[in-house]
Amino acid sequence: MPVKIDSSADLYRKLPSVDELQRSSELAALATSEGQAAVTDATRAVLGSLRQEISDGRLDANAVDLALSGLESAIIRRVRQSLKYSLRPVINATGVILHTNLGRAPLPASTLEHIRETAASYSNLEFDVATGERGKRDVHLDRLFRKLLDESASAGVPARGPEAGISTIVVNNNAAAVLLALNTLAEGGEVIVSRGELVEIGGSFRIPDVMSKSNAILREVGTTNRTRVGDYEKAINDKTRLLLRVHRSNFQITGFTEQPQIEELVSLAHKRNLPLIEDLGSGALFDLSSIGVNGEPSVLDSLRQGVDVVTYSGDKLLGGPQAGMLSGRSDLIARMRANSLFRALRVDKLTYAALEATLLAYVKGEHDAIPALRMMHLSKEEIGRRAEAVAEKINPSQLSLEVIDGESVIGGGAAPSAVLPTRLLAIACEGLSADELSSSLRVADPPIIARVEDGRVLLDLRTVFPEQDEAIVKALIEVAGK
Ligand SMILES: *Cc1c(COP(=O)(O)O)cnc(C)c1O
Predict the structure, then answer these.
(1) Residue nearest to atom 13 of ligand 1 (CA)
(2) Which of 119, 388, 435, 442 matches a 20 to 30 Å C-alpha distance to 482?
């Protein structure tokens, strides 16, 4: 600690007032371009922290003079910082395609365009242009969901009468969809769930908690590793309102396990005249095995098998905006739409526009236009070639770069077993630990988010847009040059 020769009162006297400072030509000019309020706030904050340092005894007269000489530039920096967006793009080099912390699915270009064109002006969100009368916001999407789910569903095994039809409504997210389904169909009654499916999904979604908020009573059956259809059957009583199946999104139970087949649950539910609801979480809209992703149930599979209502997210395997879908028997969906909770959980025009454009890409079969699907589809060889090209542009110096085999993860609550073979750029830097190296990549602009494993930084270009490869080269050269 510096020797204190000046009293702090002397040091405080050296500080200019907010007014004095703002009269400087530089700050006056800044106030004209960025607004007086931002400049005043920044001036107060910078002076405040200087006062704090004086009161903590951390500055002597020389240090205060030095700080005063840099005062204006400190204020300018602070103004610029405060007017920057806090929410900003990052480069996802983790290889986790649907990374919840990084905003899950990046949106297709057509989706962004449709959001822009409908949100920048008025739209027919709830207006029937032909009749001039009030319309429903659902109509824009229901027609597309019917194309994707209904026609093919009736072409499959007719699990229920064709007159029943499939309807879809959209709420804020899948958690909201589950809440709405349980509250509509089971308020005050019991819902039977297997103990092996009482999951918590990252971000505090827990089935038992959602259940209690919906005012339905959880009736657990079976054990963590084994539940049979007979366990459900025994638990059915006159308070039972529905059977719930929850997709085990982020974990696997292996070994001595048993879970009833969906067909068994369907036939039990229908025999006892109860609806079967499935929380799929991730819900693919077509068979993803065609793009190399195996073992992911699709919404259509569940509906074809006779599940009455399926809930799923818009920003997981579907690759669109955050939203929660309820697709299923029209009579049940109509009851959910009539629930006042639906009004509270409904989504805005931005989400309708985003979903409409994303669904249209499905209808047209343009799966590669959806970034999340395109990333799943990338071959290991293609990713490897890009990784080699990045490595070649970097002069080794202190960096050691190697392209190695690895695995990308779908993430976002897709089956934990659904991994994709990839090639990783493994990087080590002399004099830096892997954690230090990865944090120096995070200060790049845009920040680069990497994986750290076994003392190395790993970059998976599967989740990096090809036009971002150059930014990675630049950041690595920068780190190497330090
Ligand atoms: C992801 C997930 C949820 C939560 O979905 P959100 O859209 O994030 O609200 C619920 N259930 C399952 C099975 C999930 O995988």
Answers:
(1) 281
(2) 388
Structure tokens at 370: 């959806």
pLDDT at 395: 76
Does residue 247's CB lie within 6 angstroms of at least one atom of ligand 1? yes
Residues 328 and 420 in one domain: no
The verdict on the CB of residue 462 being under 6 Å from ligand 1 is no
pLDDT, tens digit, 9 for 90 and up, residues 130-171:
999 999 998 999 999 999 997 655 555 444 544 468 999 999
Q: Is the CB of 245 under 6 A from ligand 1?
A: no
Residue 275 lies in a domain: yes
Which ranges constitute the DSSP H helices of 364-433? 371-377, 380-392
Instruction: Verify that 389 and 330 share a domain, yes or no.
Output: no
Residue 311 pLDDT > 90, yes or no?
yes
pLDDT (average), residues 221-246? 93
pLDDT in tens, 273-308: 999 999 998 889 988 888 888 888 899 999 999 999
Residues 6 or more apart from 384 whose CB is under 8 A from it? 403, 423
User: In total, how many domains does the chain have?
Assistant: 3
387 & 288 share domain: no
Pocket test for ligand 1, best of 96, 172, 174 (most atoms within 8 A of CB): 174
**Ligand 1, atom 1, residue with closest C-alpha:** 281
Q: Report DSSP state, residue 298.
A: B
Please tell me whether residues 285 and 171 are part of one structural domain: yes
Domain that holds residue 38: 8-82
DSSP 205: E
Residues 360 and 404 in one domain: no
Tell whether ligand 1 has an atom less than 6 A from the beta carbon of residue 312.
Answer: no
pLDDT given for residue 293 in this prediction: 84
Our CA dihedral for 230, 231, 233, 236, rounded to 10 degrees, sits at 170
The CATH code of the domain that includes 451 is: 3.90.1150.180
Amino acid at 246: V
Write out the H or E segment, with its range, that includes residue 403: strand 399-411
Residue 446 in any domain: the answer is yes
Residues 278 and 182 reside in one and the same domain: yes
Q: From the CA of 203, give the closest atom in ligand 1.
A: 8
**Is the peptide bond prior to 2 cis by the omega test (within 30 degrees of 0)?**
no
Of the three residues 28, 47, 82, the one that is the final residue of a domain is 82
Tell me, yes or no, whether 275 and 403 share the same domain: no
Q: Give the residue whose CA is nearest to atom 12 of ligand 1.
A: 281
